[in-house]
Amino acid sequence: xxxxxQSPQSLHVQEGDSTNFTCSFPSSNFxxxxxxxxxxxxxxxxxxxxxxxxxxxxKGRISATLNTKEGYSYLYIKGSQPEDSATYLCTLYNFNKxxxxxxxxxxxxx
Amino acid sequence: NAGVxxxxxxxxxxxxxxxxxxxxxxxxxxxxxxxxxxxxxxxxFMVYLQKENIIDESGMPKERFSAEFPKEGPSILRIQQVVxxxxxxxxxxxxxxxxxxxxxxxxxxxxRLTVL
Lengths: 110, 116
Known about the structure:
heterodimer; A: mainly beta; 6-stranded mixed beta sheet; 5-stranded antiparallel beta sheet; globular; B: 116 residues; mainly beta; 11 strands
């Protein structure tokens, strides 16, 4: 069992603030890391898949970086909006299985 | 193209009964994953299936739980003789037939099982 940790567990920011959170994982035998966004009462939706050390991905105001040597990925949200409120999940692929972190729950106040 | 469908959305069972959870993957997807989310916890891998094959069931309890993905029809997660500790949300996700670890998983809305 691989331990994927996300921090912080929850985050409250004001509209317009930029924020970031962390996904930590074992650095050995790395294959791929996925980020998902999970809004309340909906299903998780894919944001990014990252495979190479130094990868940087961007989708609108959301971006992510990957460091496989030290075992972490950062997710950044620039100028948070209330519609960004969701739980952000990272998941590590390893030998047919996906190991999910517990998520960072983001609440953006208008 | 309809998304991943799960039914029922809510299921109530008494201790000792059987629970059958169904997952219809997206059209063209032949890989299915089942996850369990216990209250206040994250998603935990249970089983990975391709059509007519179980690829990895290492996350599934060895007793009372079984899963299948027949050639025709939905994937079924079956829990026999349910106990209160089985109360959870069960999510399935499907992906393309490539089976690559970069493939995006598309999640269903989940089935919330309550055991009385």
